[in-house]
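Task card 7
Instruction: Convert sequence to structure tokens.
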Amino acid sequence: MMAMMAFGVVAQPPRDKALSPEQRASKQAEMLQKRLKLTDDQMKKVTDINMKYAQKMEELRKEMMKASEYKYKKDQEMEKVLTPEQFREYLTLKDKMRNRNMEMRKHKIEKPLKEKAPENQEK
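Output:
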């Protein structure tokens, strides 16, 4: 149980979990249409793009759920082998590594996006 809380395995599911990938894609397109005032042509293209990636994201979600289960099972086994103090340190180390990896991924994603931002484009 301690491992579950430490790793966020008990985290809340996404709000749109009950929606199908197609419903999520359509909902996203509607939100963008309102906020960005998309033309009809843009709306069709945005909807198509959202549909394409909604299916791919659904596949990834399923794989991530499997990975979470394996991580949880591994931690349960580790807890049986390690002393309580060692296990706490193990959780701390694991958390630090996860945070470091998230930061690295964040910078990898943000850098290309910042370079494409309108304020960074030559006119």
